[in-house]
Write a structure and sequence with these properties.
Oligomer: single chain
Low-confidence stretches: none
CATH superfamily: LigB-like
Strand order of the largest sheet: 5-2-6-1-8-7
Mean pLDDT: 95
Structural class: alpha/beta
CATH architecture: 3-Layer(aba) Sandwich
Length: about 260
């Protein structure tokens, strides 16, 4: 596998939005024509033991309330890839992870809102997998390491949010100073590939505000762990919504 991605999914309404961030996601297939399969870890699929979907087709989950009617009318046509699922389960086992197959997990909004943006024609089969929000970051990096041997037409995505505190939202897109301070520190650490600083993210002064609960953040370490020191990381797009909700799109590329 040559590429992994972090993509923030924001609110479920991201699928309906038209801005620079969503436009960059819509260019995913154009910029990555070699990618034909996706392994997608969603922040909204939590499990202490990793769950890997072996579905051939997915139902659509509306795991939210109070949003526009058209969101509840979305019907996905995403296909699964049981063969790829078995490869993922085997690699996780070899890496020392407990992982179980699951057949009937629908696509939650952390998965389908992004898929509707990056692959609206449903051309890529998807293997959905869970995240353990309370796993140690260094351990989660081993997931990305394990996936390096997947074929180059496969990409690994974590769908979450780097600054994501729904109890701290404001009005407008100008970032709250504390949210911006944490994000700026985090982006510099990512771009510099400062692994030790990233592993100690919780010691940052604004970390408890930016990451009050780790489920949207912690899976970042899995896609980050995909890289070697010589590999590349690029921030493809970034914006704040509601002052404290960051939308970030990173790619990690192996040489």
């Amino acid at each position: 596998m040559k590429k992994a991605f972090f993509m923030a999914h924001g609110a479920p309404t991201i699928y309906l939005e038209d801005n620079d961030y969503t436009q960059s996601l819509k260019n995913f297939k154009q910029h990555n024509p070699e990618i034909k399969k996706l392994v997608l870890m969603s922040a909204h699929f939590e499990s202490p033991i990793i769950r890997v979907s072996t579905s051939t087709t997915y139902e659509t989950m509306y795991d939210f309330g109070g949003f526009p009617k058209e969101l509840y009318e979305v019907k996905m046509e995403t296909k699964g890839d049981p063969s790829l699922s078995q490869q993922v389960l085997s690699l996780l086992d070899k890496a020392g992870f407990k992982a179980n197959a699951i057949e009937d997990r629908p696509l939650d909004h952390g998965a389908w809102t992004l898929l509707k943006l990056i692959d609206p024609q449903n051309t890529c089969p998807v293997v959905l997998m869970s995240v353990n929000p309370f796993e140690e970051p260094r351990q989660l990096m081993k997931i990305g390491e394990a996936f390096r041997s997947l074929s180059d037409d496969t990409a690994f995505i974590f769908s979450g949010g780097l600054v994501h505190n729904l109890g701290w939202l404001g009005y407008g897109d100008q970032a709250d100073p504390k949210a911006l301070r944490f994000w700026t520190w985090l982006d510099q650490a990512i771009q510099n590939k400062d692994t030790q600083a990233l592993l100690n993210y919780a010691s940052q002064v604004d970390a408890k505000l930016a990451v009050p609960r780790p489920e949207h953040f912690i899976g970042f370490f899995s896609v980050y762990g995909f890289m070697h020191d010589q590999d590349q990381v690029h921030l493809l797009n970034h914006m704040f919504q509601f002052q404290t909700l960051s939308l970030d799109y990173y790619t990690f590329i192996r040489k």
